[in-house]
Amino acid sequence: MAGNNRPEDPSNERAYTGGADASGDDGLDRRRRDLGAKLASRRPETQVGAGDAKSRGATGYGQAMKLSSEFIAGIVVGAGLGWIVDRFAGTSPWGLIIFLLLGFGAGVLNVLRSAGLVADAGLHSSDAPPADTDRK
Questions:
Q1: CA 10 to CA 91: how far, in whole Å?
Q2: 107 near 75, Cβ under 8 Å?
Q3: What's the pLDDT score for residue 105?
Q4: How many distinct structural domains can be found in the chain?
Q5: Is 95 part of a structural domain of the chain?
Q6: At what angle do helices 94-115 and 50-89 cross, to 10 degrees?
Q7: Which of 14, 22, 62, 109 is the most exposed place for a label (fewest CB within 10 A)?
Q8: Does any domain span residue 87?
Q9: Which of 95, 97, 104, 98 is nearest to 76 (CA)?
Q10: Taking the chain, what is the end-to-end CA distance rounded to the nearest angstrom?
């Protein structure tokens, strides 16, 4: 059997760490402590203190500013394009209304992408077939 942890199985010495004295809870506690020590040695050292709370707050404000600027930029660009379309095409106020709504949608999409809640459009997907650059 592949997952057998019996002491009679010499090929599975690494999985079986207990002997006659490591039965029951004592063996489990020792293995748990050993595993905890291994995990602690692999974790990066972090200092928990008052400075961490300030840095987390600063990164939170930075993230909020980034997300709000992404949203506002989408709306401003949409409104600007709509105003320009209305100026040149004489379709006032429809260009402004339509492009303002498109800018709002683009701003929401940018915020969701920036927050990591929506993946990119897949333009650079690895499962897409490679572009054929040898064509003549």
A1: 84
A2: yes
A3: 95
A4: 1
A5: yes
A6: 160
A7: 14
A8: yes
A9: 104
A10: 60
CA atoms within 13 A on the CB side of 49: 4
pLDDT for the residue numbered 12: 47
Give, as one character, the DSSP assignment of residue 118: S
Q: Where are the alpha helices (DSSP H) in the chain?
A: 25-42, 50-89, 94-115
Task: Confirm if 72 and 108 have CB atoms less than 8 A apart.
Answer: no
CB atoms within 10 A of CB 71: 19
Question: Residue 79: which domain range?
Answer: 64-115
Q: Which amino acid is at 117?
A: L
pLDDT along the chain (136 residues), means of 10: 51 49 75 89 65 71 91 96 93 92 95 84 58 56
Question: Does some domain include residue 92?
Answer: yes
**Contact (Cβ atoms closer than 8 angstroms) between residue 100 and residue 74:** no
State the Cα–Cα distance between residues 81 and 94, nearest whole angstrom: 12
HSE of 18, CA atoms in CB hemisphere, 13 A: 15
